[in-house]
Amino acid sequence: MKAKLKVIVKRTLRQFGYPPDMELLAMEAVLKQAALIDNELINIH
Description:
The chain has 45 residues and is mostly helical. The chain has one domain (2-44). 80% of the residues lie in helices and 0% in strands. The chain has helices spanning 2-15, 23-44.
């Protein structure tokens, strides 16, 4: 699932003209946010 999310994020960043040199930082931020949301959803149920 994490690999698929990386592909989606990378494609979206390119689609909206995000600078390639900032791509890694953006991807890390998105993955961190996804992990936080995942933890919150687990704690709710």
